[in-house]
């Protein structure tokens, strides 16, 4: 038991000296009620050993973290009890003693602060009651000068030289602290190597020149609107303003595109200056009136009719349109074979025929007939 008490004494000294002897702030009195507690009764022997001389002297109970969980004014008392309040499990913060936690004590006697070493360890057990019968030992706390600052080692502005917290601690907020980075965070105070370099470009996913690597838009914007059309410069319908091909390209087909031309090509979409003027006429090479310069038949073709086409000829054929060298010259004469002067070579009667008059044609004859032929 003495060994245990000695261990507790050394443990208490180290805890109290480490947590409280570094500053001159006196621990406050306890004001609260967490709903459950334990009681520590100070007998006259134990209480008188504290030697409280200031009329405002009080005793405080602390957890190992320095949390005040109970207090009692003791000036002028011969005996007393102190309620030690337990942690309220219904709240997220620790606001009282935890089960089996070692409780230490300090005496505030005017402006002096004493560490109080009890005759036996005080271990927190809810609803428990312990009696301190033997004298306690007090040791004056030698307070050092207060150095104010943030004493939270996890804080952004933790001050290793401070021994008194001044509520200036700033929570560490990780992020990119490079003001030139794309993802710079003005609220971050601790760089986490997450900075992303600024890459300027078009960030509009609907734009023609959307840049998947860009994270910052140019000012003014360089984004180009998508214009669909045919982008093949060799195509018939190449669109000079289009930047996105929509598979509408049409192959170039050269030919005559003049619908009034002789050789108009309905499938052609590009004129090649090959158009030929329409020349109407008879295009039948076997026809009488065939026109070799015509390219469009107008239904005027006339059938070839062979015969004599010389109107002065004996056998002129008014229906013939093609001379066949059969023309016979006109030979006038008497064509009446019964006539006195019938001409076998004549083919055209010239009304010169003389009637045959029979009689004696011998002028020396008696019966010579002058009218006989």
Brief summary of the model shown:
The chain is mostly beta strands.
What's the end-to-end separation, in Å?
Answer: 206 Å
Q: What is the tally of beta strands?
A: 25
Percent strand: 15-25%
Output the helix-strand order: HEHEEEEEEEEEEEEEEEEEEEEEEEE
Shape label: rod-shaped
Query: What are the low-pLDDT stretches, counting only 5+ consecutive residues below 50?
Result: 1-23
Rg over alpha carbons: 71 Å
Give the helix proportion (percent range).
under 10%
Structural class: mainly beta
Provide mean pLDDT, rounded.
91
What is the subunit organization of this protein?
Answer: single chain
Number of helices: 2
Biggest pleated-sheet summary? 6 strands, antiparallel
Task: Write a structural description.
By secondary structure, the chain is mainly beta. The chain has two helices and 25 strands. The strands form ten sheets. Strands 2, 3, 5, 6, 7 and 9 form a six-stranded antiparallel beta sheet that branches. It starts with a helix and ends in a 24-residue tail after the last strand. The N terminus is likely disordered.
List the defining traits of the structure above.
373 residues, mainly beta, six-stranded antiparallel beta sheet, three-stranded mixed beta sheet, 21% strand, disordered N terminus
